[in-house]
Amino acid sequence: MSALRDAGLDPIEVPAIAIEFEPPRGDLDAAAGLLHTYRWVVITSANGARAILKAAERILTELGAPSWASIGPATRRVLEDEGIEVALQPSQSSGIALAVELPVVAGDRILVVRGDLADEELAVALRARGAEVDDVIGYRTREAPERSRALLRAAATDGAIAAAVFTSGSTVRGLVSLGRAESIDVLSMPAVCIGPETADSILLYAAEKPIFVIDAYTKRILSRHGVLPYEKSYDDFHQLFMKRLPANASLYNQYHALFVNIGKDFCRKRPLCASCPLNGWRGVPPLCSD
Ligand code: SF4
Fold first, then answer.
1. Distance 222 CA to ligand 1 centre (A)
2. Does residue 39 fall inside a structural domain?
3. Of 95, 96, 44, residue with least CA distance to 68
4. Distance from residue 237's CA to the centre of ligand 1 (Å)
5. Whether this model's pTM surpasses 0.85
6. Domain containing residue 252: CATH number
């Protein structure tokens, strides 16, 4: 927001998603209790930083022992506001840049704190470099929060909107849902976005074009069933669907929603294979039982 204001624009904030931090006594608190044992704590978003700081405060643990890495300036600000010295911020704000530029030696213990919708690319890349990685969810994302309906209504009646800026695929789906709930045509606004998943989400959900969206759940399910290794590129996963399925936006929309449902309900970090409808698909046995 401040960067847009600095550029002379007049941004209006309409949160299309809401953040829910992980509750006490889960994996996040357990990781916070072990902070002193990590060589690096790697934070991939400002909300991830807030999540680990809340957990550390909750269980009264010291923050100073590990070295801290931040994906970008907003995350860094949250950490530095709490007096944490950030030892590394990569040259580009991306998980891959972090994975490449983090000074790691084999056997280093690293804690990665991320949101539930972010993929596991960073942890996978760090493990490939020999690190021992705990990949922990710090917060979860809920789309189209009820309280944003009034904000969207006010923004739409306030004058013409030159563009909608999206920061993730979930913000696209969230705004489309808010627009539908308020009968506001958000689909006609020019869209600006970050990254291929967000761009494809706009094309599928907003423009209703037949473009398949790949997210962390899709990659996780397909890689666990041996379709493609997780570290393959966004485009490799994307082409898998685009080359095999008829060009049909409604089909892609439903297909993607099924991946999201399986990912949220069963194919979690600790998979619930025994009760999952995909158990046995491609002959892959369960990874673990419920
Ligand atoms: S069977 Fe297991 S690995 Fe496969 S999608 Fe379900 S939870 Fe994931």
1. 9
2. yes
3. 44
4. 18
5. no
6. 1.10.1670.10
